[in-house]
Amino acid sequence: MNPRVNMAESPVARQLSKTFGAISKTISASGLPRATQELVLIRASQINGCGFCVDMHTKDATAEGETAQRLHLVAVWREATVYTDAERAALELAEQGTRIADAAGGVPDEVWADAAKHYDEEQLSGLVTLIAMINAANRMQVMTQQPAGGYVVGQFG
Fold first, then answer.
1. What is the pTM of this model?
2. Structural domain of residue 91, as residue ranges?
3. What PANTHER family does the entry give (predicted)?
4. Is-contact 86 119, C-beta < 8 A?
5. Which residues 6+ apart lie within 8 Å of 113 measured at CB?
6. What is the gyration radius of the CA atoms in the chain, in angstroms?
């Protein structure tokens, strides 16, 4: 696969990468657990078919100590016993937020209520922003056909 745009050489893309980095720091400051963030980033990227982002976030999660078992089971998290109730609530919110166009009325109240049982308002704000951000990043990478497999942990600072 050849990318349609060389995102590494585009000044606009480099600036967007810095902006995404600043947003990521703000999300981390919300207190949302880092492991939860990576699981959500991976699941939304799987749903959206973004190989570049799945590659990046599985490598980042591995570098942060996430287990191979948990990474391999993200796509089937409902059947897996390796996630906490809080992580399950975050994954469900990520799926509903990613597939928002598929459901009239958006995210169901019960999905929001479940997430709210596990996360405070700051963490929920971070989680919602994380879901929105990864969906935007997925769409950018998929539209420009960025190839998967070459990401190196930390390459974006």
1. 0.94
2. 33-143
3. 4-CARBOXYMUCONOLACTONE DECARBOXYLASE FAMILY PROTEIN (AFU_ORTHOLOGUE AFUA_6G11590), BLL7811 PROTEIN
4. yes
5. none
6. 15
